[in-house]
Structures are given as structure tokens and as C-alpha cells.
Amino acid sequence: MKLYFSPGACSLADHIALHQAGLSFEHEKVDLKAKRTAGGADYTAINPKGYVPALTLDSGETLTENVAILDWIAHQDGALKPSGPMGHTHLVEALAFISTEIHKGFKPFFSGASEDEKKKAAELILKRMSYLSDRMEGNFLFGADVSVADCYLFVMLLWARKNELNVPEKLVAYRKRMMELPSVKKAMMHEGLV
Ligand SMILES: N[C@@H](CCC(=O)N[C@@H](CS)C(=O)NCC(=O)O)C(=O)O
């Protein structure tokens, strides 16, 4: 199995989740501008969408999209999703929220947006993050245990820190707590981020 990633990009969520699940995998860096892998392969032949993440499974099938990859990882290790009959549904709910309402909300910070557009985006990100923060009852999104949704939210918090955005205090403490997980340390080290 191989994860295609770009350092510090959203693919870091999948990288952390794979370690958290204790799965054995390779990882290869992608040059997103040149659309080439570190090994020189044409990345668009691996993922025609041209963006990371992509996860090539041992079967040879390639999965794309954070929501799908994180969901697949949670299926490999049931401890990475909330328990109970509605656990999986609540996981998908959280992943969809992070993907469409938070991740996409960062777009102005990666494009040549105006300061006004960035200010509006920052306000919306704070509102979305506050929604999650207000509902967090334990150390992690679903309580005492880490889920794949935490891996995704953590990366969004790194982006918020990089762009000096306001986030709820509770999530600052949460980001620091996530940083202490061996899976996070390992993935960040492999991506050259620490
Ligand atoms: N819908 C995709 C979006 C992935 C995405 O935004 N990837 C970014 C990095 S965080 C990327 O590779 N951008 C480069 C590009 O689009 O060329 C997902 O959630 O997996």
C-alpha cells in the first residue's frame, strides 16, 4: 500500500491515520506543480485528479478523496471511529463537515485572494471550528478516543496556526494534545515537518 502526499497538505491527515491504525504502508512525495512523484512517475497516471492524497491499496486499486481514504482506514481499525449503531454515520458527518466546510474554507489562503476575502474566510473558519469545539466532550472529537476525523481536524488546525487564524482556545489545547501522539510525530517527521 502506498500513500501519495505533499508535506503538510491535507494528505497529512491520511498519513497520521495510517500510522494510528498501525497499518504497514509506503509513502511517496508528490511535486504538485510538476505532477511528478519523487520517483519521477507521472502523478496524473496514478491520480488523474492531480491532487493529493491518493492511496494505492495492495489490490492495486487507488483511492482518492480524504473522506473516502479516512473512512477506509477507519474500516481497517474500528477503534478509529465512534462506537454504537450510529458511529459510522457520525464519522461521515464529521468528515464531510471538515472537508466541505473547513478544508475548502481555506481556499482564499492558498490563492491570490484579497485581504477582505481572507478576513471573511477566517471568520467562517472560526465559526465552523467553534461548532466542533462546543460539542467536544472529551479529549478528542468523539470523546476519549482518537478517530480519523481528529487526524483531519488536526491538519486544519496546523493550517490555521500557519495563517495566524483565530481558533477556539479549546482547539489550541487539542492541537497540542494531538502533537503528542506517536502517530502524529511519526507522520510529521516523515514529511519533514519537524
Ligand atoms: N477533494 C480533495 C481535495 C484535496 C486537496 O485539496 N488537495 C490539495 C492539497 S491539501 C492539493 O493537492 N492541491 C494541489 C492541486 O490541486 O493541484 C480531497 O478532499 O481529498
From TrEMBL:
Which segments constitute the GST C-terminal domain?
Answer: 84-194
Parts of the chain that traverse the membrane: none
Please give the superkingdom of this protein's source: Bacteria
Where the record annotates domain GST N-terminal, the positions are 1-81
Pfam (any one)? GST_C
Name the PROSITE patterns for this protein.
Answer: GST_CTER, GST_NTER
* Record-linked SUPFAM superfamilies: GST C-terminal domain-like (SSF47616), Thioredoxin-like (SSF52833)
**Under what name is this protein listed?**
Glutathione binding-like protein
Organism lineage reads as: Bacteria, Pseudomonadati, Pseudomonadota, Alphaproteobacteria, Acetobacterales
